[in-house]
């Protein structure tokens, strides 16, 4: 594997600008997909963190989602028979970029093709370069108005996190990847034994309030990576997943009638750190249209729902969180119920 | 036969080694008819109507300069932005100096505002590092510069944007906007500061149309002007098609084909981009677009890359790597697959340009060329190594043996060699960057180029020639690897006739000979009379393209 280089952060500003200019040239005035309709998840992580393993898992177990994955290195993916049989997901490889030319043009073109396609995907996963701050490529991708940033997921290798956080050549880039994340996946915890405490501490020092999922072999359910997009998500997680070092739990809430807008917003903005994902459709007393609530880690949005999304007058909310922090989350759910 | 115009000059430098100097050049129908004196031209002038034009009587005429490796597509919009960063950056007039303080940032924005006459025309600035330059800019501060025109500022790392009130309006951001990262003053008003992705998306979304406009035809015209002021009449885009082939084609064809556009442009297509779209039929695709070419705008060759960059320290070197033990990046295509990917173009006679900055990448590119020669031997293929920054003398010899050429970025001898002796490559390789003397000794034909504006050097061929002759480092006194210096005549060849050679156009461009295009650089002093240290400072009157006068 090639050694990392300082080129990426040095050129970040130029890359962003040229990327935005490429995007501005390539994106047509009108796209088939509606504005903010395609959820984009950025998968970040330093070289060797396990991004490709995770992408392979998500491609083979999409749990009903039609996903499009944009990767830098097509050759490293094992497109197995299951995936080909399912024909539900697509993988697009992007031309590699070096310091003197960027992947941005290729990315913008691929995203336009996706936004113009007949069968729009449920989710788009963009694998960021292991040697880049994912914010740059996210910004370029989001020049496409059809996309909505669902979240940045950064994978961290439990074996190397302590070293990378200190190594002068790497620390700045590594830190930028961790600080850009909405969710952190601390991978390879099975390989570090007792050193896990040190690895946790190193991550916490860089991202104190970010939810951290501990895992081995990049085993993370799609509902955590992509958010809650299918009716099965809550159910699957409710059972708890065998083999996950972290177990997850879901909470379901249903309300009848209009909800007090101000009180609910306050409760939603103060959900505990153990919450990984949340999604809801809410009828608020201070808004005319029903609103969609989306949450990944600490970041959330409350936007008017597209017509037809709210099937009835019921308000619903699904929360996915760490089982280990169930008590705190349950208390927050009680506050939401009584808001 | 049409009308003849004769331009007497203080001196005419023909770059035709058989008849190197003259006192006048005669032009007919956009081409050179004759060089010599008015007396020697009499056989023409007696037979056809003619005019003597004294515009260049006190000036020096030489063939229009050629920079055979630039990046107008990506520079066009970038250079339209005002730079406000703390480190040097390429700019429309060479290098933008770093701004050390917040006051310098504000002063530069004020100057940009004063220079733009239309009070509603937007200003976009980039490069601010709030940590190094006294914190974030904000709305009220920017409003003091202008309350009528939108002002957008973007930070160097893509984390912050700063907008004044008209820019907020332009981006449809209102006081009721509720998006994460849209910052407010303590009293609740929008502060014009946008932090992180979602907020920056709002801020930058409003700029999209503006950026597209700046980076489109308008930007290409600005780039043309920069080149024209440097005496350049032909250049080439070396990663054409990297974004979107047809969109980029439309941008160039609608602009360069305008009569007033001051340059000829070559388009060298990035193989990886057309391979991505057309696979094994990439070569057929490229051949199918070739007929779109004309004398002003032409498809030429194909581009491959083998490693990273010299100034960004991502090129690949041999033993023992960089000073810190690391090494750079290989590029798009695995090295052992290069010959296979190049072969269809090689067989079709499409000239191959291969980016190779470090000596390990030069080895890899030469290995690819050797394989091509083994599979199908060819003469006059003009396989060109692009940049050729860190190399060994034996590589120049091997390049000659394999029949290749080089297009060298030698500006780094001056601008970067001392820096990279300490950072990156160590003294030996850094001092010997751009071994033009070795290429000359081995008989390799080479050109000089700027790579403008992907790297921190100006687009100014006389500066490249100056660096080739003197090899003076940035301290103004140290001569770097003196044995790699070349003479004035050879340096001028590398920015005229030999640069035309690497673009496959030496039969039409690059020297003043009967039948060649009447493309001239008009200098206010004579390169053969000034002190060699003053070569880069010769003022440039402008250019002549196809017989058309283009004062800078």
What does this structure look like?
The complex is a heterodimer of chains A (339) and B (552). Chain A has helices at 7-10, 12-26, 51-60, 81-86, 104-115, 134-141, 161-164, 168-180, 196-206, 222-226, 232-238, 261-269, 326-337, and strands at residues 38-45, 67-71, 90-93, 123-127, 147-157, 183-187, 212-214, 248-255, 275-282, 291-296, 299-304, 315-322. Chain A has 339 residues and is an alpha/beta fold. Chain A has two domains: 7-226, 3-Layer(aba) Sandwich (Rossmann fold), CATH 3.40.50; 247-337, 2-Layer Sandwich (Hypothetical Protein Yjia, Chain: A,domain 2), CATH 3.30.1220. The radius of gyration of chain A is 20 Å and the shape is globular. Chain B is an alpha/beta fold and 552 residues long. Helix content of chain B is 32%, strand content 22%. Chain B is built from 21 helices and 24 strands. In chain B, the strands form four sheets. In chain B, strands 1, 2, 3, 4, 5, 22, 23 and 24 form an eight-stranded mixed sheet that branches. In chain B, strands 6-15-16-17-18-19-20-21 form an eight-stranded parallel sheet. Chain B has a six-stranded mixed sheet with strand order 7-10-11-12-14-13, with helices on both faces.
Average residue pLDDT of chain B: 93
The CATH topology of the largest domain in chain B is given as TIM Barrel
Radius of gyration of chain A: 20 Å
Instruction: Just give the CATH class of the largest domain in chain A.
Output: Alpha Beta
CATH architecture of the largest domain in chain A, by name, is: 3-Layer(aba) Sandwich
Q: Report strand % of chain B.
A: 15-25%
Mean pLDDT of chain A: 80
Oligomer: heterodimer
* Helix and strand sequence of chain A: HHEHEHEHEHEHHEHEHHEHEEEEH
Q: Could you give a short account of the major beta sheet of chain A?
A: 7 strands, parallel
Tally of discrete structural domains of chain B: 3
Low-pLDDT regions of chain A: 1-10, 74-87, 96-101, 238-243
The CATH architecture name of the largest domain in chain B reads Alpha-Beta Barrel
- Which runs of chain B of at least 5 residues are low in confidence (pLDDT < 50)? none
N-to-C span of chain A: 54 Å
Structural class of chain A: alpha/beta
């Amino acid at each position: 594997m090639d050694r990392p280089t300082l080129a990426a952060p040095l050129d970040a500003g130029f890359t962003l600008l040229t990327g935005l200019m490429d995007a501005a040239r390539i994106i047509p005035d009108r796209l088939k997909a509606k504005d903010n309709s395609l959820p984009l998840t950025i998968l970040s992580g330093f070289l060797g963190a396990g991004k490709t393993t995770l992408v392979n898992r998500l491609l083979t177990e999409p749990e009903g989602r039609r996903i499009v994955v944009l990767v830098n290195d097509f050759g490293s993916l094992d497109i197995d028979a299951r995936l080909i049989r399912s024909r539900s997901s697509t993988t697009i490889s992007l031309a590699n970029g070096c310091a003197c030319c960027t992947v941005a043009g290729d990315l913008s073109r691929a995203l336009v093709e996706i936004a113009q396609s007949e069968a729009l995907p449920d989710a788009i996963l963009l694998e960021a370069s292991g040697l880049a701050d994912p914010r740059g490529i996210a910004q370029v991708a989001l020049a496409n108005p059809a996309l909505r940033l669902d979240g940045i997921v950064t994978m961290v290798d439990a074996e190397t996190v302590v070293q990378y956080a200190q190594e002068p050549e790497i620390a700045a880039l590594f830190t930028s990847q961790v600080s850009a994340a909405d969710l952190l996946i601390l991978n390879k915890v099975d390989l570090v034994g007792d050193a896990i405490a040190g690895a946790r501490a190193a991550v916490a020092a860089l991202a104190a309030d970010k939810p951290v999922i501990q895992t081995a072999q990049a085993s993370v359910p799609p509902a955590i990576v992509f958010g809650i997009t299918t009716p099965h998500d809550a159910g699957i997680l409710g059972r708890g997943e065998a083999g996950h070092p972290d177990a997850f739990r879901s909470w379901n809430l249903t309300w009848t009638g209009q909800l007090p807008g101000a009180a609910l917003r306050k409760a939603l903005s103060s959900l505990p750190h153990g919450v990984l994902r949340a999604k809801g459709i809410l009828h608020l007393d201070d808004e005319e249209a029903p609103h969609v609530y989306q949450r990944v880690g600490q970041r959330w949005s409350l936007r008017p729902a597209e017509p037809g999304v709210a099937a009835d007058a019921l308000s619903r909310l699904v929360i996915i969180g760490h089982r280990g922090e169930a008590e705190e989350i349950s208390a927050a759910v009680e506050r939401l119920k009584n808001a | 036969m049409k009308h003849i115009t004769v331009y007497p000059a203080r001196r005419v430098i023909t770059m035709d080694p058989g008849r190197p100097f003259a006192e006048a050049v005669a032009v007919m129908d956009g081409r050179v008819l004759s060089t010599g004196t008015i007396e020697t031209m009499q056989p023409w002038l007696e037979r056809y109507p003619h005019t003597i034009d004294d515009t260049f009587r006190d000036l020096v005429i030489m063939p229009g300069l050629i920079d055979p490796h630039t990046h107008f597509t990506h520079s066009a919009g970038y250079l339209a932005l005002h730079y406000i960063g703390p480190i040097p950056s390429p700019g429309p007039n060479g290098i933008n100096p770093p701004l050390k303080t917040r006051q310098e940032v504000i002063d530069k924005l004020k100057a940009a505002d004063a220079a733009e006459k239309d009070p509603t025309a937007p200003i976009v600035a980039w490069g601010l590092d709030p940590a190094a330059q006294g914190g974030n800019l904000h709305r009220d501060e920017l409003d003091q510069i202008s309350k009528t025109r939108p002002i957008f500022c973007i930070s160097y790392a893509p984390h912050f944007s700063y907008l004044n009130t008209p820019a907020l309006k332009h981006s449809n951001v209102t006081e009721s906007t509720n998006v994460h990262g849209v910052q407010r003053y303590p009293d609740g008003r929008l502060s014009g500061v946008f932090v992180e992705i979602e907020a920056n998306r709002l801020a930058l979304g409003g700029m999209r149309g503006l950026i597209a406009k700046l980076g489109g035809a308008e930007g290409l015209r600005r780039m043309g002007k920069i080149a024209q002021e440097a005496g350049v009449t032909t250049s080439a885009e070396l990663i054409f098609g990297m974004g979107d082939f047809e969109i980029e084609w439309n941008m160039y064809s609608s602009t360069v084909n305008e009569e007033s556009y001051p340059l000829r442009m070559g388009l060298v297509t990035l193989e990886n981009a057309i391979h991505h779209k057309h696979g094994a039929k990439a070569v057929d695709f490229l051949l199918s677009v070739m007929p779109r070419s004309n004398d002003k705008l032409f498809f030429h060759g194909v581009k491959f890359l083998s490693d990273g960059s010299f100034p960004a320290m991502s090129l690949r070197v041999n033993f023992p790597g960089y000073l810190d033990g690391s090494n750079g990046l290989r590029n798009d295509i695995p090295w052992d697959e290069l010959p296979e990917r190049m072969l269809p173009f090689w067989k079709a006679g499409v000239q191959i340009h291969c980016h190779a900055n470090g000596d390990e990448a030069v080895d890899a590119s030469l290995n690819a060329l050797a394989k091509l020669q083994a599979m199908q031997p060819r003469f006059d293929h003009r396989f060109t190594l692009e940049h050729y920054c860190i190399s060994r003398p034996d590589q120049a010899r091997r390049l000659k043996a394999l029949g290749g050429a080089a297009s060298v970025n030698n500006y780094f001898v001056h601008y970067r060699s001392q820096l990279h002796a300490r950072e990156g490559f160590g003294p030996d390789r850094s001092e010997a960057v751009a071994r033009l003397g070795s290429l000359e000794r081995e008989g390799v034909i080479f050109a000089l180029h700027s790579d403008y504006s992907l790297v921190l050097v100006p687009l100014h061929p006389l500066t490249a020639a100056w660096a080739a002759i003197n090899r003076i480092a940035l301290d103004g006194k140290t001569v770097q690897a003196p044995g790699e210096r070349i003479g004035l005549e050879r340096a001028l060849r590398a920015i005229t006739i030999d640069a035309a050679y690497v673009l496959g156009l030496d039969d039409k461009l690059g020297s003043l000979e009967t039948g060649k295009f009447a493309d001239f650089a008009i200098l206010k002093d004579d390169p053969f009379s000034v002190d060699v240290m003053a070569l880069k400072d010769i003022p440039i009157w402008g250019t002549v393209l196809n017989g058309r006068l283009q004062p800078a």
